[in-house]
Amino acid sequence: MTKRIDWWPRTRIGRLEMAKQWVDVLAEHGSSWNIPKENVANFNELVQTAETIFHDVQNENANTTVARTKCAEVFEQMTAAARNMKRWFFHSPPLKDHELVMLGLKPHDRIPTATGTPTAQAIAETFLKGIAQLGVNVVYRTGNPDDPANKVFRVYYVVRASGEAAPQGPGEFTNSFPAKRRESLIQFDYSESGKICYLIVQIENEKRKGPWGPITSALIP
Protein backbone atom coordinates (compact mmCIF):
# COMPACT_ATOMS: atom_id res chain seq x y z
CA MET A 1 0.00 0.00 0.00
CA THR A 2 1.40 3.41 -0.97
CA LYS A 3 2.10 5.75 1.91
CA ARG A 4 0.03 8.90 1.62
CA ILE A 5 2.06 12.13 1.74
CA ASP A 6 0.57 15.62 1.88
CA TRP A 7 1.01 17.57 -1.35
CA TRP A 8 1.55 20.93 0.38
CA PRO A 9 5.23 21.69 1.17
CA ARG A 10 6.22 21.57 4.83
CA THR A 11 8.44 24.69 4.88
CA ARG A 12 7.36 28.28 4.33
CA ILE A 13 9.85 28.80 1.52
CA GLY A 14 8.56 25.65 -0.16
CA ARG A 15 4.95 26.81 0.21
CA LEU A 16 5.80 30.22 -1.15
CA GLU A 17 7.60 28.76 -4.16
CA MET A 18 4.66 26.49 -5.00
CA ALA A 19 2.17 29.30 -4.51
CA LYS A 20 4.15 31.58 -6.84
CA GLN A 21 4.20 28.75 -9.39
CA TRP A 22 0.41 28.61 -9.14
CA VAL A 23 0.17 32.38 -9.70
CA ASP A 24 2.08 32.05 -12.98
CA VAL A 25 0.08 29.02 -14.16
CA LEU A 26 -3.28 30.53 -13.21
CA ALA A 27 -2.44 33.73 -15.05
CA GLU A 28 -2.22 31.66 -18.24
CA HIS A 29 -4.78 28.90 -17.66
CA GLY A 30 -7.13 30.06 -14.89
CA SER A 31 -9.73 31.39 -17.32
CA SER A 32 -9.81 28.24 -19.49
CA TRP A 33 -10.11 26.15 -16.31
CA ASN A 34 -13.19 28.23 -15.34
CA ILE A 35 -11.67 29.41 -12.08
CA PRO A 36 -13.51 32.57 -10.91
CA LYS A 37 -11.41 35.71 -11.32
CA GLU A 38 -12.10 36.78 -7.74
CA ASN A 39 -10.62 33.52 -6.41
CA VAL A 40 -7.49 33.99 -8.50
CA ALA A 41 -7.19 37.65 -7.45
CA ASN A 42 -7.61 36.78 -3.77
CA PHE A 43 -5.00 34.04 -4.00
CA ASN A 44 -2.55 36.32 -5.84
CA GLU A 45 -2.95 38.99 -3.17
CA LEU A 46 -2.30 36.50 -0.38
CA VAL A 47 0.82 35.21 -2.13
CA GLN A 48 2.15 38.71 -2.66
CA THR A 49 1.52 39.63 0.98
CA ALA A 50 3.09 36.37 2.19
CA GLU A 51 6.21 36.97 0.06
CA THR A 52 6.61 40.53 1.34
CA ILE A 53 6.27 39.72 5.02
CA PHE A 54 8.37 36.57 4.67
CA HIS A 55 11.24 38.69 3.36
CA ASP A 56 10.66 41.18 6.21
CA VAL A 57 11.10 38.56 8.92
CA GLN A 58 14.34 37.45 7.29
CA ASN A 59 15.67 40.95 8.07
CA GLU A 60 16.94 41.17 11.64
CA ASN A 61 15.74 44.77 11.97
CA ALA A 62 12.18 43.83 10.97
CA ASN A 63 12.03 40.43 12.68
CA THR A 64 9.71 41.45 15.51
CA THR A 65 7.11 39.47 17.41
CA VAL A 66 4.37 41.36 15.59
CA ALA A 67 5.94 40.62 12.20
CA ARG A 68 6.38 36.91 12.99
CA THR A 69 2.76 36.65 14.19
CA LYS A 70 1.48 38.40 11.07
CA CYS A 71 3.65 36.15 8.89
CA ALA A 72 2.17 33.04 10.49
CA GLU A 73 -1.37 34.37 9.97
CA VAL A 74 -0.79 35.24 6.31
CA PHE A 75 0.77 31.87 5.53
CA GLU A 76 -2.15 30.15 7.25
CA GLN A 77 -4.58 32.12 5.07
CA MET A 78 -2.56 31.32 1.94
CA THR A 79 -2.53 27.63 2.86
CA ALA A 80 -6.31 27.61 3.35
CA ALA A 81 -6.83 29.35 0.00
CA ALA A 82 -4.52 26.89 -1.78
CA ARG A 83 -6.25 23.84 -0.30
CA ASN A 84 -9.66 25.29 -1.15
CA MET A 85 -8.63 25.99 -4.75
CA LYS A 86 -7.17 22.52 -5.20
CA ARG A 87 -10.30 20.89 -3.83
CA TRP A 88 -12.92 22.89 -5.72
CA PHE A 89 -11.21 23.86 -8.96
CA PHE A 90 -8.35 21.45 -9.69
CA HIS A 91 -10.12 18.20 -8.80
CA SER A 92 -13.78 19.03 -9.41
CA PRO A 93 -13.95 18.64 -12.37
CA PRO A 94 -10.47 17.11 -12.48
CA LEU A 95 -7.65 18.67 -14.43
CA LYS A 96 -5.64 16.53 -16.83
CA ASP A 97 -2.44 14.92 -15.59
CA HIS A 98 -0.13 17.32 -17.46
CA GLU A 99 -2.04 20.28 -16.02
CA LEU A 100 -1.57 18.97 -12.48
CA VAL A 101 2.15 18.60 -13.19
CA MET A 102 2.28 22.28 -14.19
CA LEU A 103 0.99 23.12 -10.71
CA GLY A 104 3.56 20.93 -9.01
CA LEU A 105 0.93 18.32 -8.08
CA LYS A 106 1.09 14.60 -8.62
CA PRO A 107 -1.08 13.09 -11.38
CA HIS A 108 -4.12 11.12 -10.29
CA ASP A 109 -3.38 7.67 -8.91
CA ARG A 110 -5.61 5.36 -10.94
CA ILE A 111 -4.31 2.17 -9.37
CA PRO A 112 -6.93 0.96 -6.88
CA THR A 113 -5.75 0.27 -3.37
CA ALA A 114 -5.66 -3.46 -2.76
CA THR A 115 -7.79 -4.49 0.18
CA GLY A 116 -8.80 -7.83 1.53
CA THR A 117 -11.04 -9.46 4.08
CA PRO A 118 -11.44 -7.53 7.34
CA THR A 119 -9.49 -9.08 10.18
CA ALA A 120 -10.07 -6.55 12.97
CA GLN A 121 -12.69 -6.90 15.67
CA ALA A 122 -14.58 -3.91 17.06
CA ILE A 123 -16.86 -3.22 20.01
CA ALA A 124 -19.67 -0.69 20.45
CA GLU A 125 -19.35 1.66 23.42
CA THR A 126 -22.39 3.80 24.23
CA PHE A 127 -22.88 7.20 25.82
CA LEU A 128 -25.95 9.31 26.61
CA LYS A 129 -27.07 11.99 24.14
CA GLY A 130 -30.66 12.78 25.11
CA ILE A 131 -34.05 11.29 25.82
CA ALA A 132 -34.51 8.11 23.74
CA GLN A 133 -31.04 8.61 22.22
CA LEU A 134 -27.79 6.68 22.51
CA GLY A 135 -24.44 7.73 21.14
CA VAL A 136 -22.34 4.89 19.78
CA ASN A 137 -18.55 4.97 19.66
CA VAL A 138 -17.00 2.09 17.74
CA VAL A 139 -13.60 1.07 19.14
CA TYR A 140 -11.12 -1.37 17.64
CA ARG A 141 -10.63 -4.36 19.92
CA THR A 142 -8.11 -6.29 17.81
CA GLY A 143 -6.48 -5.91 14.41
CA ASN A 144 -4.82 -3.10 12.44
CA PRO A 145 -6.88 0.13 12.27
CA ASP A 146 -4.72 1.41 9.38
CA ASP A 147 -5.63 -1.51 7.11
CA PRO A 148 -8.14 -0.16 4.52
CA ALA A 149 -10.08 -3.42 4.84
CA ASN A 150 -10.87 -2.54 8.46
CA LYS A 151 -12.38 0.91 7.90
CA VAL A 152 -16.15 0.43 7.60
CA PHE A 153 -18.24 -0.77 10.52
CA ARG A 154 -21.79 -2.11 10.64
CA VAL A 155 -23.45 -1.77 14.00
CA TYR A 156 -26.26 -4.23 14.70
CA TYR A 157 -28.70 -3.66 17.55
CA VAL A 158 -31.93 -4.97 19.06
CA VAL A 159 -34.15 -3.59 21.81
CA ARG A 160 -35.49 -5.81 24.58
CA ALA A 161 -37.76 -4.96 27.49
CA SER A 162 -36.35 -5.25 30.99
CA GLY A 163 -36.60 -8.88 32.08
CA GLU A 164 -36.57 -10.27 28.54
CA ALA A 165 -33.75 -12.61 27.58
CA ALA A 166 -30.63 -11.03 26.13
CA PRO A 167 -29.68 -12.02 22.55
CA GLN A 168 -27.28 -14.94 22.41
CA GLY A 169 -25.86 -14.44 18.91
CA PRO A 170 -25.70 -12.15 15.84
CA GLY A 171 -28.76 -13.76 14.26
CA GLU A 172 -31.02 -12.17 16.88
CA PHE A 173 -30.09 -8.58 15.99
CA THR A 174 -32.86 -7.07 13.83
CA ASN A 175 -31.54 -3.55 13.10
CA SER A 176 -28.26 -2.28 11.68
CA PHE A 177 -26.56 0.77 10.21
CA PRO A 178 -23.17 1.44 8.59
CA ALA A 179 -20.76 3.55 10.60
CA LYS A 180 -17.82 4.98 8.69
CA ARG A 181 -17.15 7.40 11.51
CA ARG A 182 -16.27 6.37 15.01
CA GLU A 183 -19.30 8.07 16.57
CA SER A 184 -22.93 7.56 15.57
CA LEU A 185 -26.35 8.27 17.03
CA ILE A 186 -29.32 5.92 17.47
CA GLN A 187 -32.71 7.60 17.83
CA PHE A 188 -35.34 5.39 19.46
CA ASP A 189 -39.08 5.77 19.81
CA TYR A 190 -39.97 7.46 23.09
CA SER A 191 -41.92 4.32 24.01
CA GLU A 192 -38.59 2.44 24.10
CA SER A 193 -37.18 4.64 26.86
CA GLY A 194 -36.25 2.45 29.82
CA LYS A 195 -35.70 -0.65 27.68
CA ILE A 196 -32.30 -2.23 27.00
CA CYS A 197 -30.44 -1.87 23.70
CA TYR A 198 -28.00 -4.65 22.81
CA LEU A 199 -25.30 -3.96 20.22
CA ILE A 200 -22.72 -5.92 18.24
CA VAL A 201 -20.28 -4.75 15.57
CA GLN A 202 -18.91 -6.37 12.43
CA ILE A 203 -16.38 -4.75 10.08
CA GLU A 204 -17.22 -4.91 6.37
CA ASN A 205 -15.26 -4.43 3.16
CA GLU A 206 -17.75 -4.61 0.29
CA LYS A 207 -19.04 -8.21 0.49
CA ARG A 208 -16.24 -9.37 2.76
CA LYS A 209 -16.99 -9.45 6.48
CA GLY A 210 -14.77 -9.66 9.53
CA PRO A 211 -15.24 -11.39 12.88
CA TRP A 212 -18.06 -10.37 15.19
CA GLY A 213 -17.23 -8.26 18.20
CA PRO A 214 -18.59 -8.88 21.70
CA ILE A 215 -22.18 -7.98 22.60
CA THR A 216 -22.63 -4.83 24.68
CA SER A 217 -25.76 -3.30 26.18
CA ALA A 218 -27.09 0.00 27.48
CA LEU A 219 -30.26 1.30 29.10
CA ILE A 220 -32.15 3.61 26.73
CA PRO A 221 -32.65 6.94 28.55
Average pLDDT metric = 88
The count of helical stretches stands at: 4
- C-alpha geometry: elongated
Order of helices and strands: HHHHEEEEEEEE
> What's the CATH class of the largest domain, please?
Mainly Beta
What is the CATH architecture term of the largest domain? Sandwich
- Low-confidence stretches are none
Helicity, as a percent range: 25-40%
Separation, N- and C-terminal Cα atoms: 44 Å
Q: What tags apply to this protein structure?
A:
single chain; 221 residues; Immunoglobulin-like; 2 domains; five-stranded antiparallel beta sheet; 4 helices
Q: Can you describe what's shown?
A:
It is a single chain. By secondary structure, the protein is α+β, with helices and mostly antiparallel strands. It has two domains: 12-102, no CATH class; 121-219, Immunoglobulins (Immunoglobulin-like, Sandwich), CATH 2.60.40.10. 33% of the residues lie in helices and 26% in strands. It is built from four helices and eight strands, in the order ααααββββββββ. β1 and β2 (133-142) form a beta hairpin. α1 (12-29) runs antiparallel to α2. The longest helix has 26 residues, at 65-90.
